[in-house]
Amino acid sequence: MIERANAFNTGIASEYLVLHKLYRLGLEAHLSQGNKKSIDIRVVLNDQKTLSIDVKSVRGYSSLIVNNVIARDNHFIVFVVYNNKFDEVGVIPEIFIVPSQDVVTLLTDFSGQKRIMKGKILDYKDKWEILRG
Fold first, then answer.
1. Could you name the domain of life of the organism this protein comes from (predicted)?
2. Which of 8, 26, 51, 72 is most buried (CB neighbours < 10 A)?
């Protein structure tokens, strides 16, 4: 039960961290509520165009599960990697902003699980500008 609670806490913390960053960028962002949602955050740009964001997080550092990622226009996956320092609140996690179309081309299949290796998304680190439309 502790592992499930840890995964839930990691996910919630990561969603609010990403929301925090979006507000600091001056973007209008809305967090979806609930545990079984298809989109974590919706962003409304000045021209009323919308973007959707799924937040994926890991307490470790090497790979993230992306089994449910679908390539769609204006849809992004934001990966939050805590590098085994989740409990160290003064340490800022690494954040990678990746268009969903790129995720599906970068993933690797490990025993039937789709995963993204952190090494494949290094060019997307802190690329917040791609969310401005």
1. Bacteria
2. 51
User: How many structural domains are present in the chain?
Assistant: 1
Dump pLDDT digits (tens) for 38-55: 799 999 998 889 999 999
Would you say residue 1 has pLDDT above 50?
no
Contact 56, 18 (CB under 8 A): no
d(CA 116, CA 119): 8
Q: Which residues contact 128 (CB under 8 A, 6 or more apart)?
A: 21, 25, 97
Q: Pick the closest to residue 15 from 78, 65, 92, 59 (CA basis).
A: 78
Contacts 24+ apart (CB under 8 A), 39-43: 39/75, 40/15, 41/15, 43/131
Task: Give the C-alpha separation, 126 to 38, whole Å.
Answer: 23
pLDDT of residue 38: 76
